[in-house]
Amino acid sequence: MSAMPGCPACEADYTYEDGAMFVCPMCAHEWPRDGEQTSVEEEKSVRDANGNVIRDGDTITVIKDLRVKGSSLVVKVGTRVKNIRLVDGDHDIDCKIDGIGAMKLKSEFVKKA
């Protein structure tokens, strides 16, 4: 019987196989059995309303009127936003909109320009 590899994240010895993956029950880290490590950036992909992959620095277009919380301002349909930055969280796009300022947007309300 072959020995199971230790967890690369927390270095625990209590790993087990689950299909084509190794799993650590201590920290819930999963990695492929073939030894290739996939980076977190490759696993995470943000998609717009049409299913296109959005990356840092892209230009996007708003597809729905969005009211700014705590203000009477509205981001209108068709507003183009340049040089976006992707962040973790519910609102996964961080950007600066002319006339409004810094905002966080959800990817489901934008499309790639």
From TrEMBL:
InterPro entries: YjdM (IPR004624), YjdM_C (IPR013988), YjdM_N (IPR013987). One of its GO terms (molecular function) is hydrolase activity. Residues 4-32 form the Protein YjdM N-terminal domain. Gene3D superfamilies: 2.20.25.10, SH3 Domains (2.30.30.40). Belongs to the YjdM family. It comes from Kushneria avicenniae. Keywords: Hydrolase. Residues 46-113 form the Protein YjdM C-terminal domain. Signal peptide: none annotated. This is Phosphonoacetate hydrolase.
